[in-house]
Amino acid sequence: RTVYVNGSYLPEEEATVSIFDRGFLFADAVYEVTSVVRGKLIDFDGHMARLRRSLGELALSSPVSDEEMLAIHRELVTRNDIDEGLIYLQVTRGSAGDRDFAFPPADTKPTLVLFTQAKKVIENPAAGTGLKVISIDDIRWGRCDIKTVQLLYPCLAKMAAKHAHVDDAWMVRDGLVTEGSSNNAYIVTSEGTIVTREKSQSILHGITRAATLRLAEEKGLKVEERGFSIEEAKNAREAFITSASLFVMPVVEIDGAAIGEGRPGELSRRLREIYIEDAL
Ligand code: PDD
Q: If you take atom 4 of ligand 1, which residue's CA is the nearest one?
């Protein structure tokens, strides 16, 4: 696999970053994940807009222009012959060569790393069975709207899910679901309304979320942006999640309770189809 690091395309074994890099020492870094379907980048402009926002919130500078960023993505898709999969991008604050909590001088060069991952995003077998989730306290920091690489708690949440023999964990703050470990969370009420938490600093403003809500409204479906409890979710007609890597993915069980019939819901399946159709 060919990867990109600071201006060079290299075999992955030859790509290196300094041990003093602030991404490594302090998680002083932001990232994006963009999916690739039939060689095409999905929602690329949305991911770049959010990247710029994340960078701005942390006073990080972009190492390359948007045009260059697009060129790098395309080059990696071509070099690695990616038909379906993901591209991971990370920008760190780089390093002035020592460990210091204070930011290095403003002219310090940021680190830019990108790599691809081949993965079946459309024909994902989980779409047919749906995912099972557990709930877990959301103890993350207060700026979950910034896509930082500080992902230790989501990793712990994922492991709690694994230990409970389920797929993922929905995080709960003050009695209401914020989001999944690496995805946005939704329910469908008995009236057929799609409910997902409103945008704030408590959740990542998903690019797939924005596209899904736009498509739902275009199809005349009712959308309500508000928090919901695990209790409400357990009694919902359907549940699902969205992310760049999973698109729309049905959820069929929460904390051991079957959602609806315990099978992927009608609306979740339709939204997945609509999303894929629109993306292609
Ligand atoms: N995760 N919420 C969280 C906490 C996330 O980490 C993600 C994405 C999302 C969905 O955002 P989007 O639709 O823009 O992918 C919501 C990526 C895929 C990851 O960490 O791999």
A: 182
